[in-house]
Design brief:
Blueprint: H1 2-21, E1 24-27, E2 33-37, E3 41-46, E4 52-58, E5 67-69, E6 74-79, E7 83-89, E8 101-104, E9 112-119, H2 150-156, H3 202-211, E10 220-232, E11 236-248, E12 259-268, E13 274-291, E14 294-302, E15 310-322, E16 325-328, E17 334-337, E18 342-351
Antiparallel strand pairs: 1-2, 2-3, 3-8, 4-7, 4-9, 5-8, 6-7, 10-11, 10-18, 11-12, 12-13, 13-14, 14-15, 15-16, 15-17, 16-18, 17-18
């Protein structure tokens, strides 16, 4: 009798042990996701080809500490009395053979999936002619620094799941109808804002996640060349060439302090005699503006002859993108003296 009881006990313990080692799996018929359950945690896998995924668990007590994103994705978690909703996106660099989310909980095998949703963004690219162009913008850059980072995500996430009429809805996060409208360095970025639909949903999250990590393509170091061909009332005919670089670090597009520029100039003295000089001048109050695919640079330039005078100048040129480079090119690149405005030369610039 004792022997029979002992064998029965061993068999029960062995069965319990084997049960604790077994995995169960929940998936949908289309293979969009698979949730593999283990004794004290479960792992979520998603299929390749989708841009955002949302899953809702019902009748299960989950805490935020139980939920861990994997593979550097973005997630937004929403909870109410009986549901936990998790939205996931930024799958561009995901290994789909590995899990994207882990839920650690002693009752993880009791998790129930009540619903799920997916978004696949439309893959199309439209190029504008300059006459039809609107200025591309870095959608999702909510603090305006030219980069989409964690601070922008922290701004976007609290509005997820809300619609017009809610105090948490904000139209600036309603970006799901945005499109990729530009070639070159802009082609991977949603840069043309679509019309809001009144709800901040998975499509809006997918657009934000696509742009997450990008910087405005206009930021960086630009190389400039220019030529002045101008009949000055003070100096007669002035011919000058110059070049230089400028680094735009943030989207206020302004420099602090002065910039020094060296150049060579050919001009005439008061008697009409030709002169050649190598000069250095100071530029300050430099600002950049990018609008309708046109780059405008305003600055104040010190008279290089040492007269103490300052001149307001403006450079304006049409932009185009080729690969990862941006160009502002002649013949559309013009240099103007202001007050009154008159054209005095040409320029070109590029950012590789």
């Amino acid at each position: 009798m004792k022997r029979t009881l002992m064998i029965s006990t061993i068999l029960i313990l062995l069965a319990m042990f084997l049960a604790s080692c077994m995995n169960t799996s929940v998936s949908n018929s289309d293979g969009v996701f698979e949730l593999i359950k283990r004794a004290n945690y479960c792992e979520l896998f998603v299929a390749a080809g989708i841009d955002a995924f949302e899953i809702t668990f019902s009748s299960f007590d989950l805490s935020l500490e139980d939920i861990s994103p994997l593979q550097n994705i973005l997630i937004i978690i929403g909870q109410d009395s009986d549901k936990t909703r998790i939205a996931l996106s930024r799958f561009a660099d995901v290994d789909f053979g590995k899990p994207v989310l882990r839920i650690s909980n002693n009752s993880a095998d009791m998790i129930t999936v009540s619903e799920f949703d997916t978004v696949t963004l439309e893959k199309k690219l439209i190029t504008f002619s300059l006459q039809e162009a609107v200025s591309p913008s870095l959608i999702g850059d909510y603090n305006g620094d030219g980069f989409i980072t964690l601070s922008d995500f922290a701004s976007f996430a609290p509005s997820y799941g809300f619609s017009t009429g809610s105090g948490k809805y904000d139209e600036k996060y309603d970006i799901g109808a945005s499109q990729k409208q530009f070639m070159g360095i802009w082609q991977k970025i949603f840069s043309d804002l679509g019309l809001p639909d009144g709800s901040i949903t998975l499509a809006d999250f997918a657009v934000f996640a696509n742009n997450y990590g990008f910087a405005n393509p206009y930021l960086g170091t630009w190389t400039f060349t220019g030529a002045i061909d101008y009949n000055s009332s003070s100096f007669g005919q002035v011919d000058a060439t110059g070049n230089g670089t400028a680094t735009i670090e943030s989207l206020n597009y302004n420099f602090t302090g002065n910039v020094t520029m060296s150049f060579e100039a050919d001009y005439e003295d008061e008697s009409g005699n030709p002169l050649h000089s190598e000069m250095t001048t100071t530029i300050n109050n430099v600002s950049f503006d990018f609008d309708n695919l046109v780059m405008t640079i305003d600055a104040t330039v010190e008279d290089p002859t040492g007269s103490g005078s300052w001149y307001d100048v403006r450079l304006r040129g049409a932009l185009k993108t080729v690969g990862d480079a941006v160009y502002a090119q002649v013949p559309s690149g013009d240099i103007y003296l202001l007050n009154p405005e008159r054209r005095i030369g040409t320029w070109s610039g590029s950012k590789q």
